[in-house]
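Last lecture ended with a question: if I hand you only a sequence, what can you say about the shape of the protein? Today we answer it with a concrete record. The protein is Alp7A-like C-terminal domain-containing protein. Below, first the input exactly as provided, then the predicted structure, then a couple of comments.
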Amino acid sequence: MKISRFNKDCGNSVDMNIIDGYLFDFPTNVVELQKEAADSFFTDAVTAPEEFKKRILLSTTIGDEEKERYFLVGDIAASQQLANNHINRLHNKITSHIPYVTFLAAIAYYNALHAKDQKDTSIEIDYFSTMLPIWLLKKESTFGEAQKAMANRFVGDHTFHIHTPGFERELKVSVEESSCLKEGEIARFALKKDLTLQDREDANEYVECETVMVDIGGGSIDVVILPEGLKAANSRESFQSIEGIPYLAHIDKLRKEKFPELFTDLRAFDQFILDNYNKQKFELKNENTGESIDLTVQIKSSLKEYVEILLAKLNDVAPPPANKLRKYVYCGGVAPTLEVAIMNSMGEKIGEERTEKYHKVPEDSRHLNLFGLEIRSIGYLQKKQAGKKAVKS
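The predicted structure:
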């Protein structure tokens, strides 16, 4: 099987992927099992790729380890006791097994869905790219060191086994080229171009002003100050991170304090908020009884409280300058959930007109980083191909 490009956003809550233009995601739940538990975990076989996506069980060796390790990934792992163990702390994506295991799981699902010959268990990937959060980049003496270390995790050859009944097989993966970009900054490509590499009409509004990319993830918040015209950030000081207020930890505290009997785990509560933020009415319906419980007041109040803290911290790291225009663009997996609270809060502070002009939550804000990776990779591969043709001619 041949894959031209594979772009990946290893989110703390949701793992998002685009493989040759096909977009999919699954919960960032990875639970390790002992071999004995893995061997007896499933009692029935899976027949459809979409069911397989929910019940991925794989094994592999990681890094220089010799022992094979077994992992449940995605929905099937969500109910396990340690499924959300990574949420209340910043985990190092360069060393954590989670990004690597979800990388393999994404390949396994894509292969199950798109392989023309199920006997073809060899997968060649021309180009893979992912990204790192700012707090992790700043831990190294140079960003390049961290980016290189992350990219090197995926380049080269990989072998793993799938143990989900009905999809058992060994897959061999070869990645020719791997790249790691900066979260937040990479999203600028998605503000400038669409997925066909055409200029976006609304990109003109960023030509004469600085743009602050506020990338709100489940575990961390990245802040990148871009020069006029959405150019690349030009100094280490242009990259900031807001720590100490992980969104997932905030809503988990709300769940435990207010709704422990309604939501037994964070994943279910997070999904409930995701399913209902568009209508701004958080009503939990019991399908067995037909009764509904309205949680709107508590949830909206908690989201507003979180946004007030976020905006105060944002003002500390990237305050609006007195002598130049600066626009704020909110992106990342949590941005759509917080959009109403952000716009309402800023509206109270600076008025609705200024808020609408200087504070943006793009329609595709949840995938803005991932789309940035995709747009960059398409352009890069096109240039690479053109270079090869030029050499031949």
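Comments.
1. The two ends are 29 Å apart (CA to CA).
2. The chain has a mean pLDDT of 94.
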